[in-house]
Amino acid sequence: MSVKAFKLVPAVEWEILMGDRPRINIECVECCGRNLYIGTSEGSICHFLLEEKNSPSEKTPFSISKQLHKYLSVRKAVGELKAASALNRLLVLCDNTITLMNMINLEPIPTGARIKGALMFTLNENPVNGDPFCVEVCIVSVKRRTIQIYLVYEDKVQIVKEFSTREQPCAVAVDGHYLCLALTTQYIILNYNTGASQDLFPYSSEERRPIVKRIGREEFLLAGPGGLGMFATVDGISQRAPVHWSENVIGAALCFPYVVALDEEFITVHSMLDQQQKQTLPFKDGHILQDFEGKVIVATTKGVYILVPLPLERQIQDLLASRRVEEALVLAKGAERNIPKEKFQTMYKRILQQAGFIQFGQLQFLEAKELFRSSQLDVRELISLYPLLLPTSSSFMRSHPPLHEYADLNQLTQGDQEKMIKCKQFLMSYLSEVRSTDVANGCKEDIDTALLKLYAESNHESLLDLLVSENSCLFADSAAWLEKHKKFFALGLLYHSNGQDAAALQLWVQIVNGDIQDSTRTDLYDYIVDFLTSCSDHELVWKYAEWILEQSEEVGVYIFTKRPLEDQEKNSFNPDDVIRCLKKYPVSLVKYLEHLVLEKRIKKEKYHTHLAVLYLNEVLRLKSLGMERQEKLTETQAKLRNLLKRSDLYRVHFIIDKVAGTDLHTECAILYGKLEEHDKALHILVHELKDFSAAEDYCLWNSESKGLPYRRKLFHMLLSAYLNSSTSNPELNMAAVDLLNNHAAEFDAAWVLQLIPASWSVQLVSSFLMGAMREGLHSQRMTEIALSLAKAENLIYKHEKVKLKESPVLLSDRKLCQVCQKPFCEPAFVRYPNDTVVHTHCAAKRLVNSNTNHHLSSSSGRT
Amino acid sequence: MKPDGKVVLLGDMNVGKTSLLHRYMERRFQDTVSTVGGAFYLKQWGPHNISIWDTAGREQFHGLGSMYCRGAAAVILTYDVTNLQSMVELEDRFLALTDSASPDCLFIVAGNKVDLTDACAFLPESEDKQIEKPPNSFISTKVKKQVHVNDAIAFYRKILKYKMLDEVNAPAAEKMCFETSAKTGYNVDHLFETIFEMVVPVILQQKAEGLPQTVDLNNCKTAKNTHSGCCR
Ligand SMILES: Nc1nc2c(ncn2[C@@H]2O[C@H](COP(=O)(O)OP(=O)(O)O)[C@@H](O)[C@H]2O)c(=O)[nH]1
Ligand SMILES: [Mg+2]
């Protein structure tokens, strides 16, 4: 509970004051600047000078020297002393009279101005009138239930107000226009300007001495029931929770942020910030406790003591040392308005950081993080707690004085592994949060390197994310650490991000080869392929090409076929080189050629031929293996056919030679087609393969984009092939009928009718005949329409021409050519439809210059 | 920091005011010591700071009540559902304290300790997982409810009458009467959050009017419910 907020130091001891007169008591005390006045029970006033010493380390932080000891005219107790330093006056209440004295020599003023009939009085520390040459004094009069307000000048007094209260006042404090009064049974606030009053709360003055203490602008502290110190504003509101004193409290004083109270045995100190009791000092027989401009003075009847506040920072440090973070922060925050802004901020930041480390030490990470964050802690303070995390090159030094008591994490956790892990997890999450914020400025390397180390050590998946994104990891430190923790894949990434791709690849290849162990990626081979595919260092690609292909021909070839577009555009890999390299890897080679021919559509005979030959060889090889590879065979054969059909670039004769003597009839037919030897091709299809639909297809794809006549020619050839066979073959006849009926439009009907055998019934070819008729009619009508349209168009042009010739064009000397602005000297000219008239040569020039300008050339004439 | 609005808990000692506030702010229930004088918490509610005052129910501190209530935007009159006297006290002793509250002050009636009564439902909101079962199930720890919601509603109507407020304009009684348990947490968040929601417009209005959170002593006519005869 306890804080050491104050130190009790004796100021004036009995001997100095009174020497050997034991029956005399201290009645009241006043302190103003360096002046300390003591009023005694036998009507004397003692004046001391209080000199503060600069070095706070000394036991008594001030020295005291007696100035004067002055007896008043009456030997009665001095009730109250108040200094008005602006007027150089001391107000002395004795025998119900307030006299004015010179503050320094304690002589009564010559005019003898005084206020009579006062039971007690108080000065208004926050007067409204603002006149610097007077003070406002409020007195409780000897007249029953009467309060008076006076203005006191250097040598005169003037009453300004008198009013009565509903009960006898027994204590009073003033602020502005407001009086806070303890009546016999009530505390009230009274606005002496308007007379309005506000009850605060009831209490009994008979049971207990009331306390009314102004604690600041418009706020008072009152002794309430049950030993409560109640706060009340002039509006009659309590804005702070009460402090809890003992029942027999005698006096209260304020020294921000503390409320000090006195009872018969103790001085207690409460914080106004959290209402907690902070300190208790044993103190017997005290009867006065007052604060004077921040100085708290207590007195017994025989001696005066000063409560010296300990420096706030000391108090805060004490609190932090006993891990009372909350209280320390409240205290620090509460001091904000008493300390210059800049100084406060520096101090407060530091306290937040210390508090953060205390929370951290107790593994209260959430709280710690909030404190570190709000105080913008240099993250390295935290990192440096963790052994080996800061890079060896880091220039960081812990702040001095230290923010915490820990040497390192080992000390903090005392070897508890579980705690250690928690601390590390915290640091990881904290660093990853701050690394992209302002806090990281100037120490990005340290943060990222530490983070990398933590990730590596704990097998954290974010290690890779860190390395592949932009980071400031220091190379040497990180590399050594990754190697130590066998994070070879990550090490490769680090090499890569430092521009050392060769080293990275070497490592990864070693991993795939099983020379070193790191299971980070099970698909590391694919990763390397990807890496090389987009690698801009082509020498590296060549260097590892063989190794890559050896692992997998199918995937490995990606390093050539899947290169990024810009790489492909630059053609930085010469296909011939690649093909040479792929010689040993047939699967890859096929894939690569497919890439060249089918994807990139490179129009080079040798690649097309090469690919065709490879397909062909493969087909033949698969055929020789028999049924077992049927599926593969079908697939490859389809590819082969497709290539043969689609490409016009391969060497047809070369392939035909290879196909000849095999049973690849379809392929053979395709090849003949390429050579436009259609009768050979159709012969194969019709007579050898008897594949009629293939034959029809053949006609269709061979005539693609070659126009109707060509297609007709093919279809006629096919029909002839069906019908002209030496032996009448019903199967072929059926095919011929089907062909005719299905493709009526592809035939010249007249020619067909001559060819088909007379024995065929009309019924048989009715579909063909109908189609042919329809087609004939259709084309006749289409032609007629076209003819009529052309005629109509012709007519429109004629009409335009006539219209243009209608009006005469006058050419005179004054008329200028619109192009060259010169007169005409020849009868020939050019007239544009918009009536502009120009020289013929100008028009000719224009026509050359602007081919786009249609209408200018549209008509010309001559008169 | 000056709070924007004030909510005050009133009620006899031991009804559970401190426990309710503790439950809401600290999310816990623990044995409390009898409150001395008063205490308060600051609650951040949206952009507003609301101070919640816990007062002492003891007779000794009764006189302080009206000072705590002065300018209050809402007063929670708290009773103990197992204790009829606690409801009687509200009417006899505490209602008068609200004279000093703000004229548009809201009144809320809260019956606490429902966990003790037989009719009480348990309680989805409860944060205490381990609800104590009586070790011997022959003896029930439940007691009979002495104050029912209807009694609270009747009391709320009395408040309105006392304040000379028209029932039509005031919030509906059903909405302003709560039954809670600080022990289990039942209805506690609901209680406070409903109040905050309702208090915010009052705060905004007070701010808009630029008034202090008090009755202006110089301007008695606006405060229709001050019984003072001191105006000249
Ligand atoms: N069973 C039960 N006991 C409660 C509840 N709330 C408070 N108490 C108990 O009632 C007693 C008084 O509570 P306290 O909060 O100090 O009441 P206050 O005087 O109104 O502040 C304490 O022993 C609490 O543990 C509740 O909801 N249920
Ligand atoms: Mg309480």
From TrEMBL, chain A:
Subcellular location, record wording: Cytoplasm
Organism domain of life: Eukaryota
GO cellular component, one term: cytoplasm
Keywords from the UniProt entry: Cytoplasm, Protein transport, Receptor, Transport
Pfam families the record matches: CNH (PF00780), Vps39_1 (PF10366), zf-Vps39_C (PF10367)
Lineage: Eukaryota, Metazoa, Chordata, Craniata, Vertebrata
Species in which this protein is naturally found: Python bivittatus (Burmese python)
Limits of the CNH domain: 23-296
InterPro entries: Clathrin_H-chain/VPS_repeat (IPR000547), CNH_dom (IPR001180), Vam6/VPS39/TRAP1 (IPR032914), VPS39/TGF_beta_rcpt-assoc_1 (IPR019452), VPS39/TGFA1_Znf (IPR019453)
Protein name as it appears in the record: Transforming growth factor-beta receptor-associated protein 1 isoform X1
One Gene Ontology term from the biological process aspect of the record: autophagy
CHCR repeat residues: 563-727
Automatic annotation (TrEMBL), chain B:
Primary localisation category: membrane
Cofactor (UniProt): Mg(2+)
Domain of life: Eukaryota
GO biological process: protein transport
Catalytic class of the enzyme: hydrolase
Record carries keyword Transit peptide: no
GO molecular function, one term: GTP binding
The keyword DNA damage belongs to this UniProt entry's keyword annotation: no
Catalyses which reaction(s): GTP + H2O = GDP + phosphate + H(+)
Subcellular location(s) per record: Cytoplasmic vesicle membrane; Cytoplasmic vesicle, Phagosome membrane; Golgi apparatus
Membrane topology designation: Lipid-anchor
Gene Ontology cellular-component annotations: Golgi apparatus; phagocytic vesicle membrane
E.C. designation(s): 3.6.5.2
Keywords associated with the record: Cytoplasmic vesicle, Golgi apparatus, GTP-binding, Hydrolase, Lipoprotein, Magnesium, Membrane, Metal-binding, Nucleotide-binding, Prenylation, Protein transport, Transport
InterPro entries named among the record's database cross-references: P-loop_NTPase, Rab20, Small_GTP-bd, Small_GTPase
Similarity-based family: Belongs to the small GTPase superfamily. Rab family.
Cross-referenced NCBIfam families: small_GTP (TIGR00231)
Protein name: Ras-related protein Rab-20
